[in-house]
Specification:
7-stranded mixed beta sheet, 0% helix, mainly beta, 4-stranded antiparallel beta sheet, 124 residues
């Protein structure tokens, strides 16, 4: 499985950004797609996740009410719409896939496949 994250960039506080994660290669009967982020000097943390069907989503408290995760199965692409961004959202954002599961978990070690990351910088 190959995951390609894109859409990062420089945005002012209060602005919006949409990240994309295109998936290709092997397919699974069920899986979870998620976004994680890692700020300089900090551990990688869960942001949001979505089930293979799109029927279930889960957000970290820091993302609730501001970010939205969704997917377009026809394009094999997952998105993270980020609205009302804050300087503390500055990080490298990674997409990840957890195979053969319909349970969204927040631990990075539970995900086998990772994209290369895309940098989001929020200026104050």
């Amino acid at each position: 499985v190959q995951l390609q994250a894109s859409g990062g960039g420089l945005v002012q506080a209060g602005g919006s950004l949409r990240l994309s994660c295109a998936a290709s290669g092997r397919t699974f009967s069920s899986y979870i797609l998620a976004w994680f982020r890692q700020a300089p000097g900090k551990e990688r943390e869960f942001v949001a996740g979505i089930s293979w069907s799109g029927g279930s989503t889960y957000y970290a408290d820091s993302a609730k009410g501001r970010f939205a995760i969704f997917r377009d199965n026809a394009k094999n692409t997952m998105y993270l719409q980020m609205d009302g961004v804050k300087p503390k959202d500055t990080a490298v954002y990674y997409c990840a896939l957890r195979a053969y599961s319909d349970v969204i978990v927040v631990f990075p070690y539970s995900y086998t496949y990772w994209g290369q990351g895309t940098l989001v910088t929020v200026s104050s």
